Amino acid sequence: MHLDRLRPALLPVVAVVVAMVIGALVVLAAGASPVAAATAIWVAAFSGTGAIAATLEKATPLVFAGLAVIVGVRAGLFNIGAQGQLLLGAITAAYAGYRLAGLPRAVHLPLCLAVGIVCGALPALLAGVLRATRGVHEVIVTIMLNTILVNLTDWLAGGPWMEQGQPVSRTPAIVGSARMDRVAGVPVGFLLAVAMAFGVWFVLDRTTFGFRLATVGANRNAAHYAGISVAGATVAAMTLSGALAGLGGAVESLGVVGRFEPGFNAGLGFDGITIALLARVSPRAVIPAAVLIGALRASSTQLQARARLAPEIVDVVLALALLLVAAPIILRWLLRLRPGSSPTEVHLTRGWGS
Amino acid sequence: MSESRPGEAGAVPQARGVLLEVRGLTKRFGSVVANEDVSLQLRRGEVLALLGENGAGKTTLVKMLFGLHRPDGGEIRLAGEAVRLRSPRDAIARGIGMVHQHFQLVPVMTVAENVVLGAEPTRRRFVDRRRAAAEVRELSERFGLAVDPDAVVEDLPIGAQQRVEIIKALYRGAEILILDEPSAVLTPEETDELLGVVAELAARGVGIVLITHKLREVMEAADRVVVLRDGRVVGEVAPADTDEAGLAALMVGRSVVLRIDKQPASPGEPVLGIQGLEVDDDRGRRAVTGLDLEVRAGEIVGVAGVQGNGQRELAEAICGMRPRIGGCVLLQDRDITGLGARAIHDLGVAHIPEDRDKHGLVGSYSVADDLVLNRFDEPGFARWGRRDRAAVQRWAEQLIAEFDVRTPDVHAPADSLSGGNKQKLIVARELSRASVLVVAAQPTRGVDVGSIEFIHRQLVAARDRGAAVLVISAELEELLAVSDRIAVMRDGRIAATFAGASATPEAIGLVMGGATGH
Ligand SMILES: Nc1ncnc2c1ncn2[C@@H]1O[C@H](COP(=O)(O)OP(=O)(O)OP(=O)(O)O)[C@@H](O)[C@H]1O
Ligand SMILES: [Mg+2]
Questions:
Q1: CA dihedral for A175, A179, A183, A185, sign (positive or negative)
Q2: Cα(B366)–Cα(B401) distance, integer angstroms
């Protein structure tokens, strides 16, 4: 009985381990040394406080992106637009960060975060409203919004909001009163991310609001019967999802990059999907999943230098892990799980189509 | 274990005509033993009824026969040979067909297309539609299963859709047909037709396993009855050697009152008043057409009628799940016409919905969460927006004990409950709170006879506490048993109303069928 309950939680762990073993074989086939690769990852990601801080910095926006995806999935929505929302949050927070110089820190920093949150939420709100009132699928809308927002932020960073007197398209640096630093070597943004993961867990799993979202996500007819507003939950979930993505972008600008620079946050929103899956749609599990991906990403230059491996190997390992988690049949066979005995399986497969 | 192929000669000598034999079959779900050491035989041309309380293990047993569950022990023998059925495809290949309660049909395709789907006759690599239709027509004529091969499935009544499912199984060469509570969704007329089909199929050599809670059907259709209790076979009888009361007693282990006795009603103030109500169905057609109805405190009004005459839309409109196009609905003199489901619920209206899996519960939720599905944010179960899970659990434990919902604990997902226990869960949730009006649509669908008795008593108890009770049912017998008045619904309005004493099945049937009432 106990083992039965434990097994589903073990699934992602086993998936990652198996993926790494396969990854090692790939490395071997590529003519490099798996030991050297592993050392490179270890050195780059975890040796010394500097390396650890860098890993956590990489993980921070990933936590937010993962949480954003999870909030949507719980309500049966697939917010594929976390990327665009994150970019908008990142650039608007950066703008507030250099434009509003002169404010005291206690006002400036929270204000910048709030700007990121609101601006991330707005496009998601639009998608939510279209879904709730017109039945337009949120995947279509958020994909289109992604394209719009990527180009909009590019244009802003290379046009009206561009730093004067240098060739790179990027915004001016954020002033000190809006920067997020490290506390005892740990990036403040990461602490915020951890707090947010617990916050989202609490809201989704312990509150009546979370129950409403989950009911709509699991069976919207039953939600209708129970008097839960399906439209309201749809809009709320999308908005919250976008707000989390926007906050992730803001933290990235204020705490890591120090300004907005196109290209720095490419792919973060999509890594959010990977993380949500690896975490099996459970908010607290997002933290280790994001740290893992953050560590792999942080080590890509070292991999190249030490093991002579293309950084794409990281993506290969991640893709393998994801494949193993998302295709539970393979792992179930490995773990000798019986069909249907994994209750979490339901969470993963629902909400992606409808 | 040796594998067998269809058509190979049996290795073990066996009684003649035995299609299927099950020996010592056992199935566990975690700590629940759903089937234990079950042995039985099915002969050619025989109708075998499986009878048992909710959660006795009937569905589990037939799911193993159809390759949907793997046994933990014991063996399944087909034509004398042990077989391992890994999937429904294995089962179909060996001549086993099953009709599920939720039909597996593509609504927008024609009958013929549905039947041949996955096994299409082809001509130059294209589906040969003409041949498909001809084959389907031939099958339906041979077995007396009337359906039009060219009709689109979604336009067909439920009973015809079920016949399509049966034809589908026969088309794939089924010699063994499994029917799990086939009559639960049928009108009485459709049930009679189904029993006719079953008899016809048996006469042509098909072996049939029939699961039902309706003892009348068992008496009428079965050659042999196997009774399960707590996953074990506890008895086997021939209908000729017993009667309905005997079957009920064998099943439940005590004698069951098939018709409850109750005090005469003493109706009070009107609670529900409906005037000129108009409601559309899912396709936008007017289903309730100017209906008037009154239900008073302390009385049970039954709504009879052939299914599809607007009963479902009526219940959903009263409870705020469906927009009311015209007319008005009054609850204790208050106009609730424009209110939504939540507001109406909060005014004290309990609602047992007709479709338990679609509306009544969330399958992936725990039994505890489903027991507060529409009350999760009430003061006793939440404070400041935070759910009080301990309180929910205590409440749930009390309810499953009181309403005899069979589940290992309140944390088990509702999906793991047997069909009848899901229904009891919903009934427990809706009848466990003080309400001024109870709207119960098909309250005992899929429930065993013992629990039917219990649910009927609960409805009467709600009435005696002063609630107005509206029962909508396809079972005339049920309505006759509990109602103080019976209103017959036809073409979206009330065609006639009978006082309890004057209501006879014949008189009601006449109105249902089209005669004008008084
Ligand atoms: N997938 C499952 N997971 C866990 N337990 C299950 C599962 N399926 C069935 N059970 C349990 O097995 C037992 C037998 O269930 P089954 O559905 O076979 O009952 P049944 O005889 O068909 O009842 P009913 O008349 O209500 O349909 C029940 O206790 C049920 O809770
Ligand atoms: Mg069953």
A1: negative
A2: 16
The reply to whether B353 touches chain A by the CB within 8 Å rule is yes
Count Cβ atoms below 10 Å from residue B193 Cβ, excluding itself: 19
- Report, as an integer, the average pLDDT of B372-376: 94
Ranges of chain A with pLDDT below 70: 1-9, 264-265, 325-354
The β-bridge partners of B41 are: B21
Is B4 domain-assigned?
Answer: no
- Residue A164 distance to chain B (closest CA, Å): 50
Q: Indicate the angle between helix axes A286-298 and A268-278, nearest 10 degrees.
A: 130
User: Tell me: the pLDDT tens digits for B60-103?
Assistant: 999 999 999 999 999 999 988 899 998 888 999 999 999 987 78
**B11, B81 contact by CB (below 8 A):** yes
For residues A1 and A128, membership in a common domain is answered with no
Q: Which 8-state DSSP code applies to residue B255?
A: -
Phi, psi of A296 (to 5 degrees): -65, -40
Do B282 and B307 lie in one domain? The reply is yes
pLDDT at A110 (0 to 100): 92
Amino acid present at B205? G
What's chain A's Rg over C-alpha atoms?
21
- Residue B36's pLDDT is 93
Decide: B47 and B208 in contact? Cβ < 8 Å: yes
Q: Does B343 touch chain A (CB under 8 A)?
A: yes
A126 and A88 Cβ atoms separated by less than 8 Å: no
Query: Would you list which residues of chain A are within 8 Å, Cβ to Cβ, of chain B?
Result: 1, 4, 206-209, 211, 215, 218-219, 221-222, 224-228, 338, 341, 343, 346-347, 350
Q: Are B494 and B292 in contact (CB under 8 A)?
A: yes
> Shortest CA distance to B209 belongs to which of B91, B120, B80?
B91
Q: Is the pLDDT of residue B5 over 60?
A: no
**In this structure, how many other beta carbons lie within 10 angstroms of the beta carbon of residue A260?**
29
A264 and A231 belong to one structural domain = yes
Whether B470 is in the pocket of ligand 1, judged by its Cβ within 6 Å, is no
- Shared-domain flag, residues B153 and B80: no
**Helix, strand, coil tally for chain B in percent (to 5):** 35, 25, 40
Kindly state the average pLDDT of the residues B450-477. Answer: 91
| Secondary structure string (H, E, C) spanning B291-355 | EEEEEECCCEEEEECCCCCCHHHHHHHHCCCCCEEEEEEEECCEECCCCCHHHHHHCCEEEECCC
Is residue B450 within 6 Å of ligand 1 at its C-beta?
no
Same domain (yes/no): A109, A23: no
Number of continuous H segments (helices) and E segments (strands) in chain B: 16, 24
Please report, as a single letter, which amino acid is at residue B278.
E
Mean of all residue pLDDT scores within chain B: 88
* Pair A288, A248 in one domain: yes
- In a shared domain, residues A304 and A223: yes
Instruction: Please tell me the total count of domains within chain A.
Output: 2
Percent of chain B with pLDDT over 90: 52
Provide the domain limits for residue B495: 270-512
Are residues A302 and A314 both part of a single domain? Answer: no
Q: Does residue B325 share a domain with residue B282?
A: yes
**Do the domain assignments include residue B247?**
yes
Highest mean pLDDT among B340-344, B392-396, B454-458, B498-502 belongs to B392-396
Per-residue CA distances from A124 to A62, A142, A192, B359 (Å): 18, 7, 22, 29
Which chain A residue shows the shortest CA-CA distance from B386?
A: A207
Instruction: State CA B354 to chain mean position distance.
Output: 10
Separation between Cα atoms, residue B462 and residue B360, nearest integer Å:
20
Spatial separation of the C-alpha atoms in residues B511 and A216, rounded to whole Å: 41
